[in-house]
Amino acid sequence: MKLTRWQNPELAWPGFGRMLTLQDELDRLFDSPWGELTRTPQLMSAWTPALDVDEDKDSFTVRAELPGMKREEISVSIHDGLLSITGERKAEAKSEGTAVHRQERFYGRFERTVTLPAHIAADKVKAQYQDGVLRITLPKTEEAKPKQIDVSVN
Length: 154
What we know:
Number of domains: 2
Strand order of the largest sheet: 1-2-7-6
CATH topology of the largest domain: Immunoglobulin-like
Structural class: alpha+beta
CATH architecture of the largest domain: Sandwich
CATH class of the largest domain: Mainly Beta
C-alpha cells in the first residue's frame, strides 16, 4: 500500500482556488439567516401565474396561465390604472396513508397587478377563461388610440 500526501487543490490547479472561494461564499450565504428564509416551505408555496401583455392599436390583451383553476376561483378588477388578477388554487386532498414523494405544483393565494400604460374603457373590458388560460381584452378609450393626421399641401 502506498500513501500519497494530500495536496491543497488551490496549489495544484491554477484558478481552482477561485472556485473554492465561490463555494465558501455560497455555503456562507445559505448558513446565514437569509439562507434559512430561502429554505422555508412557506416561501416555496407562494406562486404567481405567468402572464403576457400585448398591445395593438385598439386594445391591450392580457393572458394569464391558471391551469387547474375554476372560473369561480379567479377575480379580475381595474382600479386607478391597475389591472389586478387574484385567486386561490386549492391543494388536492391527499388520502390518508398517502406518501408524497415529490410536489412541484404550487397552491395557495396569488395576486398579479399590472399597470396599464394607456386609458382603458373599463366598461368594455372582457375576460374569458378557457383551457387554463385567462384572456382579458382591455379596449383603449378613443383618446388613447393613435390618430392619423392628414398633411395638406399649400
